Amino acid sequence: MGQSDFRLDAYRIISDNLRRVRAVLRQALEQLHGPHWEAVIEPMDRRTFLAQRREREISINWRRATADDLLEYGNFSDLYEFVAADKRLLERFATVARDEEVLRLRFLEIDSIFNRVAYARPISESEMELLINFDERLRRLGDGATVAQEIVGDVPVHPPLRETSPAPSMPPAQGFAAAPTAPTPSPAAQPPSRPHAAPTNTPAAPTPATPSPPPPPVPPSAVSPSRMKEALQAGDEVTVLTGLYGEVTAIADGLWSDTSCPSPRLWEMVRESTWYSENFTPLGLKPLSDFYDLAHTARGRLLDGMSRKQLQDFLKEHNFAQILLALRDLFRSRLPSRPPN
To answer: What are 160-167's contacts with CB under 8 Å, separation 24+?
Structure first.
């Protein structure tokens, strides 16, 4: 596959990722600051820059009936500036990178690939692999509908974006700043039964404790070996592929980013099962076999002392990016709601 052949795939992945980041960030900002979040988000210079970009576009394309919100005019670097301005937002993106500087670097890297696509420059295989890795990390953010509740717990916002159940009181997750909660006003006093009745000393209603936000949710792709065994016996295609999706993501991430290769515990169970042999052709499972074969070989090279650069070259030579794209299509076709679109 030539370099230019990656452009359409790269554009599709970048578009999905940019929309996902915007959706996560937008809902979180609405919960934190209300419907007028555009007027208060920090940093102010980035807010002003995007507002000017919007005004300029509207002045040129005057046929547009309405203007989009500021996030629609930001690239990955712009959006990172808003994330970095609030520790609670940084924690929400911890699945992409725990360290703030590493997160910034990841967004900058994707922006550089974004520019290559925008200006019709070729995309290299290493850039494609970096993009796929970012995409898989970003998918662990979860469904955008639960974002705000995970960030601010049970803090009420008027008007509410959606009905939610109160979050249980739990220890604060590391890196979260507790959001302030306004005291609950005391109910209005009932009129006395007699005009000159002595007032009753009623103790003031206690201020409710600010509920701590829940810890980051367990990724939906986490499937235990015992659950995988039950799923294979029951022919539960969704659970089997969900477990493999989580394992493939961890192995691919380790191979490309950390020169590590987690043990494929679930794959060993699947490969020896009747379910696998019966569904290999109907479900199109060959990309799974190709991936795990390559991962097994790479693991052996790592144990022999192969460096990170040598490992990445080895993966390129063996079409690592194409295999990941094939796996992406497999999981998307068989798991329409997991990973999230």
So the answer is: 161/27, 161/30, 161/31, 166/211, 167/211, 167/212, 167/213, 167/214
Give tens-digit pLDDT for 22-33: 999 998 899 888
Residue 161 tokens, joined: 């974006």
- Cα(189)–Cα(208) distance, integer angstroms: 20
Dihedral sign for Cα 69, 43, 93, 132, please. positive
Q: Of 201, 211, 131, whose CA–CA distance to 165 is shortest?
A: 211
Q: Which residue has the tokens 């309405």?
A: 66
DSSP at 24: H
Amino acid letter, residue 341 = N
336: preceding bond cis by omega (within 30 degrees): no
Q: What are the φ and ψ backbone dihedral angles of 162, each rounded to 5 degrees?
A: -165, 160
For 1, the enclosing helix (H) or strand (E) is none
> How far is C-alpha 157 from the geometric centre of its chain's CA atoms?
24
- For 317-339, what is each residue's pLDDT tens digit? 888 888 888 898 898 888 865 44
For residue 272, which amino acid is it? E
